[in-house]
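Quick one, probably user error.
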């Protein structure tokens, strides 16, 4: 049973997952909403261990196009990992919606 708050927006952006500033996985952002996101990845991330950051690039891989979200892993599936935001980041959300 899904327990999402709000609508998810389908996206396809490169995503990099960090733990303590060390990249531990890469994948593709598949959808994002007000409470979290799903990143498709082949790497295994233990949801119990995971206070993480997700880095996305909105248009090319330069520093000015980079957004980082503080997240926590909440579930793992065969296709990837579900993440919830640790705190709301209005600037990042506005950038993605543009």
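Nope, works fine. Designed sequence:
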């Amino acid at each position: 049973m899904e327990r999402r708050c709000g609508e998810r927006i389908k996206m396809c952006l490169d995503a990099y997952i960090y733990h303590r500033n060390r990249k531990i996985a890469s994948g593709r952002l598949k959808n994002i909403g007000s409470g979290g996101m799903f990143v498709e990845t082949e790497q295994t991330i233990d949801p119990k261990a995971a206070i993480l950051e997700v880095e996305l690039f909105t248009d090319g891989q330069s520093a000015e196009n980079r957004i980082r979200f503080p997240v926590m892993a909440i579930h793992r599936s065969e296709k990837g990992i579900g993440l919830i935001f640790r705190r709301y980041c209005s600037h990042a959300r506005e950038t993605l919606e543009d």
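The helical segments are 90-97.
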